[in-house]
Amino acid sequence: MQTTYATPQDIDNWMSLVNQIRQNFPGLETQEGLDDYKATVLKFIDKRQAICVKPDAPSDQRIAGIMLFSRGKNVICCLGVSPVFRRRGVASLLMEEALLNLDQSKEISVSTFRAEDEKGTAPRALYEKYGFVPEALIREFGYPNQRLIRYPQGAEKGERQKAVNKMVRAVTDILSDCKPSIYLYGSSVLDDFRLGWSDLDLLVLTGKMISEEQARRLVRLRQTMLVEEAGNPYYRSFEGGMLTLDAFLSGEEDRVVYWGTGGERITCRYGLDAFCMSELLDDGILLYGNDIRDRLPRPAPDDLGAGVRKHYETIRKYAQKTGRSLYSFGWLLDISRCIYTLRTGGIISKTAAGEWALRENLCPCADALQKAVEVRKMPAAYQKDESIFDYAQDLGSSVQRYADILERELGESGR
């Protein structure tokens, strides 16, 4: 078998193979879909982003396997192997050639069938063999798929996603009869997670009430995972709520499992503020179950304004003085984020908000905000820096001066 870049002369044999396996390619059910796909393949051929595997014999014109990839997007777009040539290493030849063409110092993504789909058994095994990690559940051409990511060697985000996947499996094992939908949102999906500072925010919405036994197992789950894998730094970072979709929508009492910074408990109600709801709807990723976000209400501008007002009041009440903690820098980032929302109606990460506010010259104590951004980006680098903790302890006046700007913005917005 030999791997080669496809040429325009290969297109008929390429499409002959595609016709054999078109049932594995959502979107190719119609002749129009096939015609569009053929045009796409020719474009990829022109860019030398189409490879194929052929038999060694020159007289054998068949194509054993095909792959399209994008160097610009660092994505594997399409992989297929002829039924006649399966279990002969064709897919591995294609993968190894593609990886030589893609930037392995960055994330490489691919989408394939979900774990419960029998058509996904072989491709998922291949991708996981080459280090791809399952991530978001998605739909392509109306078909349920999943995105997998190959992270750069040693990337923190890769280890984090593995921990997320283990936690999701543990939750779904407990709630197997409740038809859960599980979402990840917040700093992790906004590319702003910082180990030692950030949380991993989960929302679990179920089709029926969580039983007492299930709730007891869930409320202890973070500790259980830590006992089983004591060196994992992520399990203590998980926060969020688990309850029925109906109770989440109505606000009525339910059996709710809550994980927070201060501990975990079984309670009766749980909801998201306007900021978190916007993050969930716009940027959250589905990790398990059916996507039911179309049933969740989108916060109105007034809801976001009320959320900013509440943050402002909290800052005035609790941030007159700050403690010797890295989290004290978070007040400045929170104010930046609030101002961004008031001006744009959008939600961005705390780090991005701080950088935006610096560019806009919004903060009267820019040095303090600059330091806050630096600490937020690399909290581990400052864990033993006593001068930073001294700085944090004296941030109260800077926070309140910046809160004056937020107060003015609230007034100008009429909120």
Structure commentary:
The chain contains 15 helices and 13 strands. The chain is an alpha+beta fold. The chain has three domains: 2-150, Gcn5-related N-acetyltransferase (GNAT) (Aminopeptidase, 3-Layer(aba) Sandwich); 157-295; 301-413. The strands form three sheets. Strands 12-11-10-9-8-13 form a six-stranded mixed β-sheet, with helices on both faces. A four-stranded antiparallel β-sheet has the order 1-2-3-4, with helices on both faces. A hairpin with a 2-residue loop joins strand 6 (132-140) and strand 7. The longest helix has 19 residues, at 156-174.
Which terms summarize this structure?
Aminopeptidase; 3 domains; alpha+beta; 415 residues; 15 helices; 6-stranded mixed sheet; 4-stranded antiparallel sheet; 13 strands
Record the SSE blueprint.
Blueprint: E1 2-5, H1 11-21, H2 31-46, E2 50-54, E3 65-70, E4 75-81, H3 90-101, E5 108-113, H4 121-129, E6 132-140, E7 143-150, H5 156-174, E8 181-185, E9 200-206, H6 212-219, H7 221-228, E10 238-244, H8 245-250, E11 256-260, E12 263-267, H9 274-283, E13 285-288, H10 301-318, H11 330-344, H12 350-359, H13 366-377, H14 386-393, H15 396-413
Parallel strand pairs: 9-10
Antiparallel strand pairs: 1-2, 2-3, 3-4, 5-7, 6-7, 8-9, 8-13, 10-11, 11-12
Helix pairs in contact: 10-11, 10-15, 11-12, 11-15, 12-13
